[in-house]
């Protein structure tokens, strides 16, 4: 029997080569993330593959699975170790090679595989690895499945089975890009588009798709370099958005599009170099799609702008908005449950249901939707569409360090602190708290509509903080200072990655 994993091992030892290493905190709410090889070794990845196969059979799902890997120096090795475990557990593996996460999700449909295991650390820094998994297309695992997978792997209770197989699917990227192009409407407007890929996986695919759509492509950091020399491929980080804005201004582009490390997210910069946070792009797309689909339902995450509820144009279109838990698995599932037209996350994960997409998140399909929105508004620039939104002042996603082992406890403590403040009528940033939303962390709203959010990151040892005000930048900063003041009552909360 394959050995039971240990939670810690000393590297450069015989034990490290003879025993699986799997740190328990790598099992997140809806996918898995580890530092490699500090928190998981290749034998640990094999154990994970055995666990996935065991769980698939336990769920009673047909054991056909598609897998691929992102562009990092170690991802291919990790994928092969994962495949070894999955085959041993009786899974029939179809390997699509270097891929974007949405390419693997598409493979579930195109290759008739109910299951997926995509090796990617997404936008995490170099050194991270992980797996995004699912066994019920287009959904990915949620807390229940991840909890059971953790039990199987850490307990070493995986089951060997006969029937495992392996097939490499050559040229699958062409099938994926051809399908996306077939879903796109012909672009009649002459557009120049910056395609920024942060030297990550999307550089192999996004520029090709955009060129096929007939737009002029200005490539930015599309060359492969898994050291990510300029910035992390994360369109939620200001560093990447600043780089896109500079290139848009330099080239006179109509729009800048930035893709994350595994291509399931898309960030947007307008033609004047204004960096538009993804939740506002979602409002713009909801306005555009709401005209085509009156009364449509949209799902948005709790990090997102309050405009989904207050925008007069969305109200006039009678669209419905459901605020839900942050996380690609949560929003994807909610979109499917409600039969929503689309789901939008502030991080840039956008989920389009039929007739636009298949319900999973795809940054390239988001890019198509932005381009089609511009094409449907030939007399308006991206900046014009952005200025048409009611003005609010919003922060980027800000993440103070907080260890995985304590971050959820810190959020519970902070939530209780805000509950007590609300009950006592205590002011926050000079105003009374009128609403607390605790579906995912805590979102605190003041009398004037200014709000702040604190939640635990699902994929890194961090908290997540977002603030927005419909009143002024001063109120935005006051709310941030007040929320941060409560956070600083907890010694486990460290420095931010970025702030306002």
TrEMBL record:
Which BP terms in the Gene Ontology apply to this protein? Answer: carbohydrate metabolic process
Instruction: Provide any one GO MF term from the record.
Output: metal ion binding
EC class of the enzyme, as a word = isomerase
The Alpha-D-phosphohexomutase alpha/beta/alpha domain extends over 26-153, 175-273, 279-391
Q: Which UniProt keywords apply?
A: Isomerase, Magnesium, Metal-binding, Phosphoprotein
Q: Which cofactor does it need?
A: Mg(2+)
EC number of this enzyme: 5.4.2.2
Residue ranges of the Alpha-D-phosphohexomutase C-terminal domain? Answer: 427-484
| Domain of life assignment | Bacteria
Q: Which PANTHER family match?
A: PHOSPHOMANNOMUTASE, PHOSPHOMANNOMUTASE_PHOSPHOGLUCOMUTASE
Q: What family does the entry list?
A: Belongs to the phosphohexose mutase family.
Q: What is this protein called?
A: Phosphomannomutase/phosphoglucomutase
């Amino acid at each position: 029997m394959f050995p039971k994993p240990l939670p810690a091992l000393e590297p450069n030892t015989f034990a490290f080569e003879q025993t699986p290493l799997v740190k328990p905190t790598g099992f997140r709410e809806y996918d898995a993330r580890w530092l490699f090889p500090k928190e998981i070794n290749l034998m640990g990845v094999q154990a994970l593959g055995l666990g996935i196969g065991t769980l698939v059979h336990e769920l009673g799902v047909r054991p056909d699975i598609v897998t691929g890997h992102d562009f990092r120096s170690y991802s291919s090795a990790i994928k092969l170790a994962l495949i070894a475990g999955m085959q041993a557990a009786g899974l029939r593996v179809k390997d699509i090679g270097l891929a974007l996460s949405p390419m693997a999700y598409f493979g579930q449909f195109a290759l008739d595989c109910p299951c997926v295991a995509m090796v990617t650390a997404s936008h995490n820094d170099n050194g991270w690895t992980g797996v995004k998994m699912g066994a019920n297309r287009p959904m990915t695992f949620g807390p229940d499945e991840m909890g059971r997978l953790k039990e199987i792997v850490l307990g070493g209770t995986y089951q060997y089975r006969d029937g495992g197989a392996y097939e490499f699917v050559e040229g699958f990227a062409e099938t994926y890009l051809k399908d996306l192009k077939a879903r796109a409407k012909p672009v009649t407007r002459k557009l120049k588009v910056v395609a920024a890929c942060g030297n990550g996986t999307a550089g192999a695919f996004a520029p090709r798709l955009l060129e096929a759509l007939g737009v002029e492509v200005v490539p930015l950091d599309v060359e492969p370099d898994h050291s990510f020399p300029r910035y992390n491929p994360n369109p939620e980080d200001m560093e990447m958005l600043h780089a896109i804005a500079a290139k848009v201004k330099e080239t006179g582009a109509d729009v800048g599009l930035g893709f994350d490390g595994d291509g399931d997210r898309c960030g947007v910069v307008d033609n004047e170099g204004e960096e538009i946070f993804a939740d506002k792009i979602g409002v713009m797309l909801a306005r555009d799609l709401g005209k085509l689909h009156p009364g449509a339902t949209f799902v948005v995450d709790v990090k997102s702008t309050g405009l989904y509820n207050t925008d007069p144009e969305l109200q006039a279109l009678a669209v419905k908005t459901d605020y839900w838990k942050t996380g690609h698995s949560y929003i994807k599932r909610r979109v499917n449950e409600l039969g929503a037209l689309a789901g939008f996350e502030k991080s840039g994960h956008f989920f389009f249901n039929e007739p636009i997409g298949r319900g999973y998140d795809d940054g390239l399909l988001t890019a198509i939707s932005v381009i089609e929105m511009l094409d449907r508004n030939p007399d308006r620039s991206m900046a014009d569409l952005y200025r048409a939104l009611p003005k609010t002042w919003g922060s980027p996603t800000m993440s103070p360090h907080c260890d995985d082992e304590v971050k959820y406890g810190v959020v519970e403590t902070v939530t209780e602190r805000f509950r007590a403040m609300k009950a006592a009528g205590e002011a926050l940033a000079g105003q009374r708290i009128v609403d607390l939303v605790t579906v995912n962390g805590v979102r605190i709203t003041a009398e004037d509509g200014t709000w702040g959010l604190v939640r635990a990151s699902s994929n890194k040892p961090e908290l997540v903080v977002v603030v927005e005000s419909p009143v002024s930048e001063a109120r935005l900063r006051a709310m941030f200072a007040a929320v941060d003041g409560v956070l600083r009552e907890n010694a486990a909360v460290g420095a931010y990655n970025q702030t306002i």
